[in-house]
From TrEMBL:
Homology family: Belongs to the triosephosphate isomerase family.
SUPFAM superfamilies the record matches: Triosephosphate isomerase (TIM) (SSF51351)
Catalysis performed (reactions): D-glyceraldehyde 3-phosphate = dihydroxyacetone phosphate
Reported function: Involved in the gluconeogenesis. Catalyzes stereospecifically the conversion of dihydroxyacetone phosphate (DHAP) to D-glyceraldehyde-3-phosphate (G3P).
This protein's UniProt keywords: Coiled coil, Cytoplasm, Gluconeogenesis, Glycolysis, Isomerase
Record flagged with keyword Cytoplasm: yes
Protein name in UniProt: Triosephosphate isomerase
Catalytic residues (positions): 95, 167
């Protein structure tokens, strides 16, 4: 069985003090959880604070973005090589906010995925459709194209170990969620598409749902067979709500 992965994405929130306090609070609340992988992705500024505060717990740490070069004259960027040197386990790649606000392309997402893997950092690859694409019945074409592009050049073993986050763009930060069944359906489509090229990896790759996951809706989302966890924005900012999401998931998987 795939181990569910509940991961917070703090986005551009929290200073160093706030990050440390939150992790200390969260640690205590989830200390008995052993059947759910738990993580926080923070800004580059807070990464080492989160990592240090998480010591002695099962919490893993991730960045929200990387550049694909190892080092050099790329003002403002951080690399997978730097993350690896600080034992940061994950990085989000291709979040829709990066794609939409910062113009990140599928080509760049693939370069970032390859760079992360080259340094032993696990990518969490985000895909998802806009409302217009959903209305035009282009969900399948959009997400499969994004996944195929992101996975270009990967080995079967690398795909098996990946995390993909299906985040319909219209559900992010809006309070709207895809129904649990609909999220399950699209995630199933993504998995079957992966199976065409990676038959062994398809049942191993973890595919999360993201978009307004909250304590009140996490149970029905996590009860779906294809959904292997959640990438949580707003509700990951407070230890209370994020731990509730983790604890409810842990109960379902018991
Ligand atoms: O974008 C998201 C996680 O990456 C989802 O954000 P919200 O949970 O705030 O909708």
């Amino acid at each position: 069985m795939r181990k569910p992965f509940i991961c917070g994405n703090w986005k551009m929130n929290k200073n160093v003090d706030e990050a440390e306090k939150m992790i200390n609070n969260l640690k205590a609340k989830v200390k008995d959880v052993d059947n759910v992988e738990m993580g926080i992705c923070s800004t580059a500024l807070c990464l080492t604070t989160v990592k240090e505060a998480a010591q002695g717990s099962e919490l893993v740490t991730g960045a929200e973005n990387i550049y694909w070069k190892d080092s050099g004259a790329y003002t403002g960027e951080i690399s997978a090589k730097m993350l690896a040197a600080s034992d940061i386990e994950y990085t989000i790649v291709g979040h829709s906010e990066r794609r939409e606000i910062f113009g990140e392309s599928d080509y760049e997402v693939n370069k970032k995925v390859l760079s992360a893997l080259a340094h032993g950092v696990k990518p969490i690859i985000c895909v998802g459709e806009t409302l217009e694409e959903r209305k035009a019945e282009q969900i399948e074409a959009k997400v499969n194209f994004q996944v195929d592009s992101a996975l270009a050049g990967l080995t079967e073993a690398e795909v098996a170990d990946l995390v993909i986050a299906y985040e319909p763009i219209w559900a992010i930060g809006t309070g709207e969620t895809a129904s649990a069944e609909e999220a399950n359906r699209v995630i199933g489509i993504i998995r079957e598409n992966i199976r065409k090229e990676y038959p062994e990896a398809a049942d191993k790759v973890r595919i999360q749902y993201g978009g307004s996951v909250k304590p009140h809706n996490v149970e029905e989302i996590m009860a779906q067979p294809e959904i292997d966890g959640a990438l949580v924005g707003g509700a990951s900012l407070e230890a209370e709500s994020f731990s509730e999401i983790i604890l409810k998931t842990a109960k379902i998987y018991k």
